[in-house]
Write a structure and sequence with these properties.
It is a single chain. This protein is 48% helix and 5% strand. A two-stranded antiparallel ribbon has the order 1-2. The protein has a two-stranded parallel sheet with strand order 3-4. The chain is mainly α.
Length: 197
């Protein structure tokens, strides 16, 4: 056990310490974070929620995750790309999501960009995973202090996404997306999930 993992008294497992302040964070850490995502809808969800988080806590977003799934058509990029101004205005009135106009527009825009990537590469999944050679990068961090906020791969992916017209895809957001979607495994080595994902 390191300074950045802790044994959860609820079940005795050692986890990354960042998740232990709230049950929703623990559940997300244990079931989702770092699990390699290959489904375009799930990848779109991770990207959209990562953009929505900008300037906010991850817990704030997790509390609204089901609202996002409901209001953004299960993160089906084909459906979201067709959202018009009337639909966007309705979304901005719904308290189940972050009612930030730029972030909502970004999700709609990014859905359309995903469709363009699919047209060129066959899937959003194939395009994204090419930035890590098709397999998760398995890091072996011993403490949170070792985990970078940005990597060269995140910078490259961010630059490519921006060049294709995606928004809310700066390098820091993209690296958090890569962690969430399992393109990289940034569980601390003492965490029980490190070896599982």
């Amino acid at each position: 056990m390191t300074a950045t993992t802790r044994i959860d008294p609820g079940d005795g497992r050692t986890r990354c310490e960042w998740c232990l302040s709230h049950p929703l964070l623990v559940a997300y850490h244990d079931a989702d974070w770092g699990v390699p995502a290959r489904d375009d809808r799930l990848l779109f969800e991770h990207l959209s929620l990562g953009g929505a988080q900008a300037g906010l806590s991850w817990l704030t977003i997790l509390k609204r995750r089901e609202g996002y799934r409901d209001l953004f058509a299960g993160f089906d990029p084909e459906k979201v790309a067709r959202f018009d101004e009337t639909r966007i205005e309705r979304l901005l009135l719904d308290e189940r999501i972050i009612r930030n106009r730029a972030k909502v527009r970004s999700a709609v825009n990014n859905a359309a960009r995903i469709l363009e990537v699919r047209e060129e590469h066959g899937s959003f999944d194939r395009f994204l995973w090419s930035f890590v050679g098709g397999a998760p990068r398995r890091n072996r961090w011993k403490s949170d202090g070792e985990i970078p906020a940005v990597t060269p791969e995140a910078e490259a992916l961010s630059g490519e996404l921006k060049s294709r017209g995606f928004s809310f895809v700066g390098p820091t957001i993209v690296y958090a997306f890569m962690q969430a979607a399992g393109l990289v495994n940034d569980h601390i080595v003492g965490c029980f999930r490190h070896g599982e994902v």
